Amino acid sequence: MSQQSEILRRLSLVVTVSLLTFAIGCSSAKKKEDDGGVPNAASADENAMGDSDSGRAMGLVTVHFPYDSFTLDQQAKEELKANASILKEKPSLKVQIEGHCDQRGGIQYNIALGEKRANSARKFMQGLGINTDRMTVISFGKEKPVDNGSTDEAYSRNRRANFVITAQ
C-alpha cells in the first residue's frame, strides 16, 4: 500500500470515528435539552469526571496552539509539565486528550489538525515519563468550540488540547 493510500485510509478512519462521536454527543445533548437542562461542554456526558476546559480536572489545564499549528510553544510545554506532575502524583488517573481547532478551515483539515495537536501533547507528556496507556487522543476538529465568537481572541481559545479525566 502506498504512503498516500495509507494516509487517506487513516484520515477516513479519523473522520468516521469523529462523526460517530459527534452523533453520540448530539444524542446525549438532546436528552439534556429534554430534561430542561442547557447542554454545554462542561456538562457533557463525556466530561462527567471533569475536564480542563471547565476547570474541573484535578488541576489539569488546557493547552493552546498558534494558528494552523500543532507545535507546542514554551507556555504550552510548561502547562504540560504541570499536567504531567499531576498524573505522576495520581498514578491511577487516565485522561483523554481532545484536539480542537478554531472555526476556520474545512472539516477534514481541522479533524487532522486536531489529532496532531492531541498527539503533540501526548508525545510531550510521554517524554516526561507518563505512560501512553494512560492517555488516549481524539480530535473534534472545529465541532466543539469553547467560544463561538469570530474574533482573533475567540479563535485562539478554540485552538487547544483539552484534558478529560476518564478514570480516577
> Considering the protein shown, what is the CATH homologous superfamily?
OmpA-like domain
What is CATH's topology name? 60s Ribosomal Protein L30, Chain: A
Widest sheet: strand ordering: 1-4-2-3
Structural category:
alpha+beta
- Provide the gyration radius in Å: 16 Å
For the secondary structure, the number of strands is 4
Count of DSSP helices?
Answer: 4
Any idea how many domains? 1
CATH architecture: 2-Layer Sandwich
Tell me the β content: 5-15%
End-to-end Cα distance: 41 Å
Task: Spell out the helices and strands N to C.
Answer: HEHEHEHE
CATH level 1 name: Alpha Beta
The major sheet is characterized as: 4 strands, mixed
Residue runs with pLDDT of under 50 for 5 or more positions? 26-47
Shape estimate: globular
Mean pLDDT rating: 83
Q: What percent of residues adopt helix (DSSP H or I)?
A: 40-55%
Give an overview in words.
By secondary structure, the chain is of the alpha+beta class. The chain has one domain (40-167): OmpA-like domain (60s Ribosomal Protein L30, Chain: A, 2-Layer Sandwich). 45% of the residues lie in helices and 14% in strands. The protein has four helices and four strands. It has a four-stranded mixed beta sheet. Helix 1 (3-34) crosses helix 3. The protein is globular, with a radius of gyration of 16 Å. Residues 26-47 have low confidence and may be disordered.
